[in-house]
Each structure stands twice: as structure tokens, then as C-alpha cells.
Amino acid sequence: MTDERWPDLDVRAAAERSSLPPHLVEQVEDFVERLPPFDRVFCHGDLVGQHVFVDDWRVTGIIDWADALVTDRHYELVQVFRDTFDCDIEVFGVFLEASRWPIEPDFATRTLGHALRRQAMMLAQHVSGDVFEPIAVKFPLGDIATLDELAVELFEV
After folding, report:
1. What is the pLDDT of residues 15-61, one digit of tens each?
2. Which of the chain's termini has less CB crowding within 10 Å, N or C?
3. In 10 A of CB 19, how many CB atoms?
4. Residues forming a β-bridge with 70
5. Nearest Cα to Cα of residue 117 among 87, 156, 79
């Protein structure tokens, strides 16, 4: 599947059903509209700790490819950040460096923007889910005024 075949995603409605506070939800549509053209690659779509097998510090297997798709490479990152690295930006940065991830000046904005798209896609596929739930536990989202500030707080590496 490619994201070009997705149903029209309502990112605002999906954000309303997440842990994001209302003042950030109000900014979602404009924030996602500003995303640059997608850098489409093949993504697993649900890359979480329970789907990756590691032995002696090497990945030995990846399971559950049901959500695989072609979309922007940043779509995958929020799950890795929150699930695999427990929202630890330093460890996340090491992962990005080790994987030779292309860090462009707009990396943080792209990553948050595609996390918002991921929230919408998750709710289009399933009846529930909240990409931002563990993030809301670890970060004072009520004190962060804009999504641009949140992008820097979460993903500035």
C-alpha cells in the first residue's frame, strides 16, 4: 500500500482523540499542511519492540508486516522514539546516527508532522490508539505553546 491510496485522513479529529492538549490540537491541520514533499520509502508501519528480535546486539528478525506501506521515512520514527527508546532523545539520536539517518534542518518538524499523520492513520485502521500517550506522560504538553516547540522538544537531535 502507498499513502497515496489512503482515505482522506482527518488529522485534527485524530489529534482530538489523542493525549495532545486542545491548544496543540488547534494547530494540527496547519502544521501538517506545512510538511515538505514526502520522501517515500518502504516502511514497516508498526516498528515496536515486540516486533523486532535482537540477538547479541544484532537484529535477527522483524515480524508483523500487516501495516507495511510506502510513505515518508519519518512516519516510522514516533513508534521507535516512544516504544523502543522510551522517549529518550539521547538514545534516539545514537540510533539515528548509527543508522545513518538523513538529518535535515527540518527533521524535528517532519518527524512530529508524520507522527500526527500516523495518529490519523492508526484511527482509520483501528477503533482506538494514541501515538502521543507515552509522550504526554514524560513531557509537560500543557506547558508547550506550539507544535513547532513540541517538535524541537521531542525530536531536535
Report:
1. 999 999 999 999 999 999 999 998 899 999 888 888 988 899 888 99
2. N
3. 17
4. 2, 42
5. 79
